[in-house]
Amino acid sequence: MRQTLTSQQQARLVLLASLVATALFYAVPYGRYLAYPLMLLSTLAHEMGHGLTAVLLGQSFDRFEMWPDGSGVAHWSGQIGRFRLALVAAGGLVGPAVVAAVAFAAGKNVRHARYSLAIAAVVLAITLVWVVRNLFAALFVMSLLVICAWIAGKGSEQLAQLVVVFFGVQLALSVFSRGDYLFTPVAATAMGMMPSDVGQIAQALWLPYWFWGALCGGLSVAVLLFGLRIYWR
Predict the structure, then answer these.
(1) Where are the alpha helices (DSSP H) in 178-208?
(2) What is residue 118's predicted lDDT score, i.e. its pLDDT?
(3) What is the pTM (predicted TM-score) of this model?
């Protein structure tokens, strides 16, 4: 007699499948090229973290740019003090972890996963019109928008759950794979060298950049564990 998986068992199986698929990216020939868009996903979450934090603090999110090397910049404007300036910088550093935790929380339930992809498509459409200002970023955001919208509208609930959890896994892993950025005072982008996020925080709040990198890294891990706890229970 065939047994039906419980929702909890299915959720855990989906998480395992996402981890296996991720491992295969780095085991098969040319797999790293397949993983390239996932790196861009973490850049998008990072830069939108800066921009949305600025908006929440009453500032203006002017434009978002991203380039093929995986670097990006969120341009914002406004008059704020040192503490709020540091918060905007930190918003990008914890952005991927926050989005990953939300993905895990939504991916626990197949129906919620579908809804979350529909919401993501709307957010991406607004982002595309509102702040995306260079061709490469526009093409990536538009591609992601189409994927989310199609799966939300035409895909099965099981496929929606798999995609949401897979995206969550990629963003969670990016916290560690790109963690070296937390411990450098400068950042190399397609626009040239500029102070890194932790460098900006250090300039605003005086303590060494590596202290703020460790703090933001610890906060990101805590947020991830919270999202995984919700998912696993």
Answers:
(1) 197-205
(2) 97
(3) 0.92
